[in-house]
Amino acid sequence: MRELLLLDEYAKQSKSIEHFMLVLSTLYTLDAAGFAAATDALHGRTRIYFASEQHTLLANGRHTNPKQVPGTPYWVITNTNTGLKRSIIEHIMHAMQFPAELTNKVYGTI
Predict the structure, then answer these.
(1) DSSP states along 5-60
(2) What is the pLDDT at residue 44?
(3) Fold of the 24-107 domain
(4) Which residues of the chain have pLDDT under 70?
């Protein structure tokens, strides 16, 4: 994960959604099972944030704008504000037992 933050590709991303998707993709690549467990436990009061099929997200919320996380079988809603994107990353990284210092660095780049 530290290597991701140093990559030119990551630095070139100018939008929070681009950083968000790249971080999600990297987390999945590092530990697919840990990512699956973390995303299964992540949902709002009336909304789910991750699914294995686009139509599941469309059926569970209005204006979800689902996109597939590159290199994964997962879809994520993307019409969330930056704060929620940061919270999602923080939750996943905490569940995957990343050090708090690294989580905070990644959180700050979204």
Answers:
(1) HH-HHHHH--SHHHHHHHHHHHHHHH-HHHHHHHHHT-B-SS-B-EESSHHHHHHT
(2) 82
(3) Replication modulator SeqA, C-terminal DNA-binding domain (1.20.1380)
(4) 1-14
